[in-house]
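Support case: user asked for a sample of complex input and structure output to validate their parser. Sending the pair below.
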Amino acid sequence: MGLDVGVIGVGMIGQEHIRRLDGGPGGSRVVAVADADADRAAAVAGQLPDAKALPTGEELIASDAVDAVVVTSWGPTHEPYVLAAVAAGKPVFCEKPLATTEEACRRIVDAEVAAGRRLVQVGFNRRYDPAHRALKQALDGGAIGAPLLVHCAHRNASVPPHYTRDMSIADTAVHEIDELRWLLGREIAAVQVLTPRKSSRGGELQDPLLVLFEMSDGVLVDVEVSVNVHYGYEIRCEVSGETGTVELADPAPVTIRREGAVAGLVPGDWRERFALSYDVELREWAGTAAAAQPPQGPGAWDGYVAQVVSDAALRSLHSGGRVPVELPPRPDLYASPTS
Amino acid sequence: MGLDVGVIGVGMIGQEHIRRLDGGPGGSRVVAVADADADRAAAVAGQLPDAKALPTGEELIASDAVDAVVVTSWGPTHEPYVLAAVAAGKPVFCEKPLATTEEACRRIVDAEVAAGRRLVQVGFNRRYDPAHRALKQALDGGAIGAPLLVHCAHRNASVPPHYTRDMSIADTAVHEIDELRWLLGREIAAVQVLTPRKSSRGGELQDPLLVLFEMSDGVLVDVEVSVNVHYGYEIRCEVSGETGTVELADPAPVTIRREGAVAGLVPGDWRERFALSYDVELREWAGTAAAAQPPQGPGAWDGYVAQVVSDAALRSLHSGGRVPVELPPRPDLYASPTS
Amino acid sequence: MGLDVGVIGVGMIGQEHIRRLDGGPGGSRVVAVADADADRAAAVAGQLPDAKALPTGEELIASDAVDAVVVTSWGPTHEPYVLAAVAAGKPVFCEKPLATTEEACRRIVDAEVAAGRRLVQVGFNRRYDPAHRALKQALDGGAIGAPLLVHCAHRNASVPPHYTRDMSIADTAVHEIDELRWLLGREIAAVQVLTPRKSSRGGELQDPLLVLFEMSDGVLVDVEVSVNVHYGYEIRCEVSGETGTVELADPAPVTIRREGAVAGLVPGDWRERFALSYDVELREWAGTAAAAQPPQGPGAWDGYVAQVVSDAALRSLHSGGRVPVELPPRPDLYASPTS
Amino acid sequence: MGLDVGVIGVGMIGQEHIRRLDGGPGGSRVVAVADADADRAAAVAGQLPDAKALPTGEELIASDAVDAVVVTSWGPTHEPYVLAAVAAGKPVFCEKPLATTEEACRRIVDAEVAAGRRLVQVGFNRRYDPAHRALKQALDGGAIGAPLLVHCAHRNASVPPHYTRDMSIADTAVHEIDELRWLLGREIAAVQVLTPRKSSRGGELQDPLLVLFEMSDGVLVDVEVSVNVHYGYEIRCEVSGETGTVELADPAPVTIRREGAVAGLVPGDWRERFALSYDVELREWAGTAAAAQPPQGPGAWDGYVAQVVSDAALRSLHSGGRVPVELPPRPDLYASPTS
């Protein structure tokens, strides 16, 4: 019983995951942390009852005390940590992206295929959001017939100063890339990024974008990506099917009447909007890891495909044209419905 | 006082307008009708207290008893009737389309310019819908900052057997063409029609469509055009601006809780959804006509531009590519804010 | 054709009705006005194309130029004007209240019964609001089974300085008194007024109130009457039936996302909220008056009953207890379903 | 670390709580169960990795293996089990009601006071529902000014055959009794139960009820209690304050457009509606129990007061009149804001 977890990278998201995993569901606890900033690692470990700080992620992965690994370090470091965890035969939860290039992602897929079993889960948390699950349930249950069109919006109130143009795709729209594959059960066949009038609030950024995805069965998806909307953080999605549509409802839990308006409050950021999805994601991951089962969530193949589509979208952003997505055959290891 | 109206074409929409105009606002009444089907004209006239059936539209326009003309006949007949009304110096309300070709529309514009005063109003009723007016009011009032993106959906429960592929643009999306120009105060600079997976409910139709409009200031608009959605008739529109968005609310007047759902009823068709907009449209038109003022609503120039954009969209539908919209200079006659 | 109307009392509500009736539906026009303030009468008449100011309401009613009468003068003057119109055999639209005492209302009923035909309509405009009509339609159509409970709220942003405690019942809740009888098709059998914690915004007023109505078939209704809610004007109503409920939807035509909220705007006052209901009310009244038909709207009996119930509610407000409502037999003249 | 829990009474709600506590947050696990039906106890224990079935609740409470106790047995057995847990100095989570009579509840309060520390938490789960917490947060944050009126509805789709008239108060409305005290921070001063027209669906039951609560500061609350509404399970609450109102929003996570309606799905029962609140409730309880802290949730005093008010409401249901609520002084042990 219980799952002893090591966490590599203890910045904001790492600390959020630690909070969920230590003394958390399934008897999980955090027993080791590592960080490029050794002081930060020590400080975080010092606040946990059972954890110690280790000098490197590699040592953490190798430690006998660690049953499973969480990788929440800087993106470019994901590949070696995930490969090491796979080599060690330990379950590993890696925040998105799985790795920062198609080739790196492919190496992880190849390693897992060579190992012959799935150990990797990628942190695409939308799949765990109750509202997105209800959307998929309605769709799969036939409530609206076959899907034909999807309309999405991904809106951030603002982004930090280091946020660059390409991050609108690689960091932001990548959530929709995974969500659409999961929601519709189809691969993305082509992508085109359109550039509307620029917001004066976005500085040098090309903001907003309208990203068009063509699914392999012809379903067409438009995604508004806006990262400076000021009014709050909001995720919208409506699927139009042959006999109806299904749409995410406004998530505000209460309606307030005051000062001339009937209003629901909008979340300020993704942490507030998706807090529950992270709870469920890590609980489910810890459950399968503790039971030595393959992860039920998005795996290495999903991380790889997201990277391929994200790269195609970036090419479209740079060129302006429609870019087809080419995928190699899916390895048999990922043939199950859960990936 | 009072406005004596003649109506050419007394099919369904003609009879609806007669009902609104006879004994209607401003003391208007219907004094003459004409129809290609003389029996139908006689039958309709027979049910009105003050109307007689005339043999032809031309005679109706020429009749001294007729102060103003409503043209609700078959589209290809619009041009000669409107030209005749302009020649006669009588106010004319013409259901959309103004005429069925760019050249025909242009001849009407030229005739009006030559006459030196505006007599023509085109039946783009969206501008009279209270919800669309509230949308424009919020936008113009600065509630969401400068507009950047617009998302629309135009959904019909079903269409009659004679409905053809091109009608998705020329009869259906044409409403959005006029609405967007009015709402955003900009011309459409280019259009592209995308063809998602076809609905199995649409037979030979290419249904749905996703139509992209680029406004002259870069605002990008996507319009879902679906004409077989089965669940009802629905018009949706959300404008995304720099600091917020404004969206048409669900128009259902009551919320019903029963059988496992909290629901608003969806209108069955456009007559139900836009009944009030037609009331306002004809009341305002009759008011300006009775006062011998130029129409405040969409005029000949708007009808002409809608035709040009509609033609461009049809070329895109046929070719698949993006089609720029080329407009000649706007005649001074239409320089006022109302057209 | 046409209806020549005289209007007695040309304050705010009188002028609103004049705007709707002059050059309005059915060819109606306003041909005479009268007011206790002769200057105001002259000023209003001066702005109408066909109206002249008459010295007294009595002369206006007697004038051969006047086909039908609108009474929008001060409440205590309603009785003599309505009685005079009935005596003259002219249709009369009287703003609520029909008269200010049960006895005065009864004298009007008796006069109409003696005359043998219905000439009086009372200005209970809720019956003409599209949302209230949709509520009744759902109820009558069996959407929720037999009604059991009703929850209402009647909220004003603020009230003028001369507004007194009793006006919460006689001027405000009286709308619900008529609405409930119409909506449920039953008489009110008893009433009790409860006094919650007082709002600090209401000065000497007993505000809010919770008014309980027992219908003759046992349906129980609670009505929040709040006249200083600050945030806007709002009317709410939910009917709970055996298998579901039906509720007025939020009437905001658009949804605005800005500054951390997803919001619909609330009307500022009753004129904004019920503008359309007044249009329909006066159009339908003018139609029956022009056709010399009995009014289809609330009649003298409804005005009388509203007064009886309002008096009972005032007794409860003063005494704190439950007050049964005693009604005399309904005269045969009012046996039709429309009253 | 970890909390070893014993559960007394393993029917439906007991098994639900076991599912949440075994291998749950804070390293909690279920180590012992007991039930009046020994076979059922054995069957449930057999499905848990670490639990054994004990012959009696008393033995379970006394067992050294048990750190904390959950009481989910039949209501009349609650008192002795809770008293035994208090005597043993063990934290005890008791499903509502705390006990079935005022005297029994008082004995528990007295025992806890005598022991000098709080060990008892009562299962009023509303306090843990995110929407109810958001409602309280808005209220406490001053969003609507001081509260004046509250409107609630508690609706069950149906009730089992053994459900009796008094259970509408003691089992159903008791949730609002606790919720209102918590939400408003005031005691209930009086209660009156009104009996509207009976639903034909409720057999012998007096269904629905309208329950009026007067808070100690004059705030007036009306609660519709309907237990056969057929359409689903729904909890509604709107607080009207001096400058606005705050209301629970419709909890449906998605909006479905189909078959003529725009709809959100209604939960079928309380398990579906409040699943998340039970998760939070038991996680927070297990956290304080594991840390040997007093419970942060509703305690013995809250269970006692709920019973006193429920008894008053039953007297009103039987007599028809208004019944004041008399409470003894609150013991100092319960003076903290959390009870």
